[in-house]
Amino acid sequence: MSGKRHTQAELVALARDAAIRAHAPYSGFSVGCAVETEDGTVATGSNMENACYRLGVCAEISALTAAQQAFGLDRIRRIAVAGGHIGEDGTLTGAQTVTPCGGCRQSIAEARDLSGVDIEVISASGDGTDASVQTISELLPASFGPDNLDDAER
Prior knowledge:
Order of helices and strands: HEEHEEHEEH
CATH class: Alpha Beta
Number of strands: 6
Helix content: 25-40%
CATH architecture: 3-Layer(aba) Sandwich
Shape: globular
Number of helices: 4
Mean pLDDT: 95
Structural class: alpha+beta
CATH topology: Cytidine Deaminase, domain 2
């Protein structure tokens, strides 16, 4: 999907649609993520749980991986995340906004380091009625990145 930048509501809707396709049989908490470039191209992903819990994949990592394959992490400008429970009618529910976990924040910060742009993160509720917007630098103010490796022996 490309051609124009999406509105915040459209990007959240894409994240919510991705969450509906999540594989979350253990927690029942589905999360979706939509990653957008400067020209409006979007890649999406959702969480995928595993019976060996720690082997699950977050929605943000799923979407970032799809984005890397589709257009490269250096083109990312905005990310929307939404999560909640899938209701009986098949829609995503939940009133609390969902923010990326620490590991996902680190991965988004790495995309920021590649692009040189402080990526906007839209954290939305499952039902899509509430959202907050912060940059990745606000969500992860003291991130570890490539500059921290300057003293590494190579």
